[in-house]
Amino acid sequence: MSKSLQAIRGMNDILPEQTPLWRYFEGTVARLLDNYGYKQIRMPIVEFTELFKRSIGEVTDIVEKEMYTFEDRNGDSLTLRPEGTAACVRAVLEHGITGGGQVQKLWYIGPMFRHERPQKGRYRQFHQIGLEVFNLDGPDIDAELIIMTWRLWGELGIRDAVKLELNSLGTSESRGRYREALVEYLSAHHDKLDEDSQRRLKTNPLRVLDTKNADTQAVLVDAPKMADYLDDESRAHFEGLKARLDAVGIPYVLNPKLVRGLDYYSKTVFEWVTDKLGAQGTVCAGGRYDGLVEQMGGKPTTGVGFAMGIERLVLMLETLEQIPEEISRQVDVYLCAFGEEAELAGLALAERVRDQLPNLRLQVNAGAGSFKSQFKKADKSGALYALILGDDEMAQQAVGFKPLRGQGEQQSIAWDALAAHLATCVVQG
């Protein structure tokens, strides 16, 4: 027998019963970003491989082990995007929209791809919403990004379940001095490091700070601290960020081991973390990357941004039971019609009601069926009310109106009064 078709491991279908929560989350974020003056940009999911090698760093785990890379028919090396910042920078450079110091406040949404070991909250195809801001270099814009996410957590009802961690990586020069001191310290304790950290010591030593290995963490207790190597500019920037967060009342924790997994970060880095999702604790993270645009061939242009994982935040909403009641209901009203004449009249009536109530979720029965079968479908739809159109109703140019989710007797409503009645009842319901 042939093997049954199935999705690739770690690349999941999002089924109809799941999509309402996704749409609620995505819509909430989109409205928030509109209110803060951000504009959406859409980039391809496939880019030249060189883009990610130049931006993320050739010795990062993403480039070395996790990218989906292939040659196309022209022999070009292409990669499914593992993150959005590099693609967004490529887009603004290609189209010149940050030239001349133009400020751009952009956001995007879509799938990313990394060949990782799939587990709950960590997949090979995953979805992110990302923000990138160009040509603003002060701590005020760093603060705005964090304040926006704080507001989002409040709107979603998960503010008590997340914690903000902050650090500053300084400029490339100060980070270089710190790197030398860290390598010297860790080299003296080489035998106590785990195998992965020994490898990173030669390629990307700052990533050793992010280790989960308990023995290596013990070594890091007395390691040099980045804060001691910060330049004056970075220190002032970081103090300005903290002052703004304090002014708004956003709590945070300073985490000197927070370095992020990508080479392009400088100055501010931050993560929103939770203990509600097991091992996958980061739900939103980002920071400043003032040298990336120049590194990718553009003129010196400051940048800062973040990305949030949609799968993890949807999972949080489910775990914390922060799902609005209205999104679990896909239908407000279900129209049952009996007989061809009633079906035709029902279609016309439904369209008139939709003209008057464009936000009403009105489903018309399809496939005919007996009174019992249509009512069974009406109940299964989750609708609050059923509309009934049969011979008696046709004669009276009225429709039967029956509550499905609570007390109340069936009523007869005239066709020309139906929209007004539904507007009142559905809002109250």
UniProtKB/TrEMBL annotation:
Its main location: cytoplasm. This is Histidine--tRNA ligase. HAMAP family: His_tRNA_synth. Belongs to the class-II aminoacyl-tRNA synthetase family. It comes from Pseudomonas fluorescens. L-histidine binds at residues 83-85, 114, 128, 132, 260, 264-265. The keyword GTP-binding does not apply. It catalyses: tRNA(His) + L-histidine + ATP = L-histidyl-tRNA(His) + AMP + diphosphate + H(+). Signal peptide: none annotated. GO terms for molecular function: ATP binding; histidine-tRNA ligase activity. InterPro entries: aa-tRNA-synth_II, aa-tRNA-synth_II/BPL/LPL, Anticodon-bd, Anticodon-bd_dom_sf, His-tRNA-ligase, HisRS-like_core, HisRS/HisZ, HisRS_anticodon. It is an enzyme of class 6 (ligase). Coiled coil: none annotated. Pfam families: HGTP_anticodon, tRNA-synt_His. Keywords: Aminoacyl-tRNA synthetase, ATP-binding, Cytoplasm, Ligase, Nucleotide-binding, Protein biosynthesis. GO terms for biological process: histidyl-tRNA aminoacylation. Homodimer. The keyword Zinc-finger does not apply. PROSITE patterns: AA_TRNA_LIGASE_II. It is found in: Cytoplasm. One of its GO terms (cellular component) is cytoplasm. Residues 1-358 form the Aminoacyl-transfer RNA synthetases class-II family profile domain. Its EC number is 6.1.1.21.
